[in-house]
């Protein structure tokens, strides 16, 4: 109740968020995925909606319901996620890439279910690199100045070094870093914000609390920009 009387930091803003894992097919009944639960991305979507934004969530397969008032597009593969993002990018003020997008898809996926044979050799999978959705969106920003791009990075080591480097490489103003095995599937997280001034640690908290803090940080940074 109290929250509903507070000024809404993202009122009038349109926010596009990716969340969850992607699923890269091997054949019609099998595929490759990762350990993302979608909890962080869904928390960010909920927090952005609470802050008054119009939120579109492009989600890989998760077990989560769409947050109240959030429009969701369901996808499976990284390519489908890229297509859904690009088709809905126009007019967005903020893009937040929380999804754990598969870096590779199976290049020799089978159209029919693969069958094992008695004593036969196991299949050999070939991989092709998926396009970088965040970098593709960030590249469009150089034309209009929008959307404000935020990335997430899950590392397993050297978060401070990799986080700062990844922000630069992706060409984005804000990158959120976390340690993969401290967050995947869990309700709590510790995140570090990397921007052009350096980094800020947000102490361990539940994902919704962190998501609300992140939304405020984003709102502050776009406060005086008009589309
Ligand atoms: N990302 C993306 N498309 C991809 C790969 C990553 O949009 N094909 C986005 C993620 O949603 C995240 C950010 O890029 O916001 C960082 O993802 P991460 O996997 O940490 O970085 P990579 O550039 O893929 O580098 P690596 O996995 O080798 O560390
Ligand atoms: Ca990656």
TrEMBL record:
Catalytic function, reaction form: (R)-4'-phosphopantothenate + L-cysteine + CTP = N-[(R)-4-phosphopantothenoyl]-L-cysteine + CMP + diphosphate + H(+); N-[(R)-4-phosphopantothenoyl]-L-cysteine + H(+) = (R)-4'-phosphopantetheine + CO2
E.C. number: 4.1.1.36, 6.3.2.5
Region spans: Phosphopantothenate--cysteine ligase: 15-227
A molecular function GO annotation: FMN binding
Biological processes per GO annotation: coenzyme A biosynthetic process; pantothenate catabolic process
Cofactor(s) recorded in Swiss-Prot or TrEMBL: Mg(2+); FMN
Alphabetical UniProt keywords: Decarboxylase, Flavoprotein, FMN, Ligase, Lyase, Magnesium, Metal-binding, Multifunctional enzyme
Note on how the cofactor is bound: Binds 1 FMN per subunit.
Listed pathway(s): Cofactor biosynthesis; coenzyme A biosynthesis; CoA from (R)-pantothenate: step 2/5; Cofactor biosynthesis; coenzyme A biosynthesis; CoA from (R)-pantothenate: step 3/5
All residue ranges annotated as the DNA/pantothenate metabolism flavoprotein C-terminal domain in the record: 10-220
GO CC annotation: phosphopantothenoylcysteine decarboxylase complex
Residues bound to CTP: 103, 113, 152, 166, 170
Record's function text: Catalyzes two sequential steps in the biosynthesis of coenzyme A. In the first step cysteine is conjugated to 4'-phosphopantothenate to form 4-phosphopantothenoylcysteine. In the second step the latter compound is decarboxylated to form 4'-phosphopantotheine.
Family per record: In the C-terminal section; belongs to the PPC synthetase family. In the N-terminal section; belongs to the HFCD (homo-oligomeric flavin containing Cys decarboxylase) superfamily.
Protein name: Coenzyme A biosynthesis bifunctional protein CoaBC
Source organism (scientific name): Massilia glaciei
Organism placement in taxonomy: Bacteria, Pseudomonadati, Pseudomonadota, Betaproteobacteria, Burkholderiales
């Amino acid at each position: 109740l109290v929250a509903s009387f507070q000024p809404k930091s993202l009122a009038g803003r349109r926010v596009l968020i990716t969340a969850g894992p992607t699923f890269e097919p091997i054949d019609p009944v099998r595929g490759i995925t990762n350990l993302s639960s979608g909890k962080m991305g869904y928390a960010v979507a909920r927090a952005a909606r609470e802050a008054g934004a119009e939120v579109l969530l492009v989600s890989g397969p998760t077990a989560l319901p769409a947050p109240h008032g959030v429009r969701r597009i369901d996808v499976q593969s990284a390519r489908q996620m890229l297509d859904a993002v690009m088709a809905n990018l126009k007019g967005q003020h903020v893009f937040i890439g929380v999804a754990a997008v598969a870096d590779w898809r199976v290049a020799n996926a089978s159209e029919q279910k693969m069958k094992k044979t008695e004593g036969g050799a196991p299949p050999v999978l070939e991989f092709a690199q998926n396009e970088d959705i965040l970098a593709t969106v960030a590249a469009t920003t150089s034309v209009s100045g929008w959307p404000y791009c935020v990335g997430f990075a899950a590392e397993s080591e050297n978060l401070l070094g990799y986080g700062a480097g990844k922000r630069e490489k992706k060409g984005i103003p804000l990158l959120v870093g976390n340690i993969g095995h401290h967050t995947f599937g869990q309700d709590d997280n510790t995140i570090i914000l990397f921007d052009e001034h350096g980094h800020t640690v947000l102490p361990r908290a539940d994902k919704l609390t962190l998501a609300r803090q992140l939304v405020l940080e984003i709102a502050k940074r776009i406060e005086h920009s008009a589309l």
